[in-house]
Amino acid sequence: MGVDHWPVPFVDEPVDLVVDLPGSKSLANRALILAAVADGPSTVRRALRSRDTLLMADALTSLGSHVDTTDADWVVTPGAFTRDAAIDCGLAGTVMRFVPPIAGLSTGTIAFDGDPHMRNRPIGEVVRALRALGVAIHDDGRDALPFTLSGAGAVRGGRVVIDASASSQFVSALLLAGARFDQGVDIRHRGAAVPSLPHIEMTVQVLREHGVEVDDSEPDRWQVAPGPVRALDRTIEPDLSNAAPFLALAAVTGGSVTVRDWPRMTTQPGDQLRTILTAMGCDVRWHEDGLTVTGPERLTGVDLDLHDVGELTPAVAALCAVAEGPSHLHGIAHIRGHETDRITALATELGRVGIGVVEHPDGLTITPAPVRPAVWQTYADHRMAHAGVVIGTAAPGIEIEDVATTSKTFPNFAGFWSDLVAAAPTH
Q1: Choosing from 201, 311, 339, 401, which is the catalytic residue?
Q2: Domains of the chain
Q3: Is 311 a catalytic residue?
């Protein structure tokens, strides 16, 4: 075992356990952005303490608001954006894309950069949209990190046309800042279908809860009226995408896992795990404590269009690898631009452990086979680590390279997982 390799605990009996998950990163970072430009202090309760959310808190504090992350509930106090600042985006797409539009409201010079891989992640549509709305951005024509934004204290706003086919975050970024623009914002999408639409629906919902007027009645068009952003105390839902490896633990062992406080109504894409796991043969039931998934004797292969829930692909692909019969996952060309090219990464790692896999431009065909011991590479991608955990739970001899990358959305994931599995009663 290499020094950076974590052996996944193999589980050969059905488990029976209950899990409390950290809060949603997607919801938390949207809540933090809106709280920073609101008309008074707000509290973000049950805030996820992870690399992505702490980077967002640091970015907003650098601009001139103040995010107190001392306790479990984070207090956000809006402030004037008058400082020069250097924003570290890390590997957080929400920081790289959501912060520049509100940074345009600053009177300072704001420099943006991040981890090396972030310089390859798409942001050009946001940069070009902000230029069209009157924001000065200097990037030597790269339309990528690093770049510098010179704020003028206000953003004109108005109509802008973008191609959001590479990321729904392009739309959300402009929506979140739009109410503070002089003319609001009128976003028109031109291009292939926007992926991960539930994330845009999440953005629209939180905006409305903050009193912002949003019109999304026309396909591929979103309008935000100019006006105040109401301060709002909010409790963050559990991160349902982070539930994937835990529910997979039930699926691959034929046991039961309950995730506490699973919301009955939510815009989180991770909620689609209920439908996906049902299609694979699991029993999925609500009860007073949350959501319980019970695995079948044998998982069923599936044909799934994951266009709207691409972030679930790694964990679902791992489940397909240990199912009965082939599976085809498609509609996910956009996940090539996530933390890594997730399609190629999954094809490489599934092949490494002996699974039959064919890579397509927009997906994967997966044919189960006996899993052989190997070191599963993560590519600094937390979702790839989750996929390796699912494989290693179902078959012995799997080690995860750089499991610490899971801190992006789940601090101490490996310790939490090991303790959970060790203590789990079995059927």
Answers
A1: 311
A2: 5-22+237-423 (3.65.10.10), 25-217 (3.65.10.10)
A3: yes
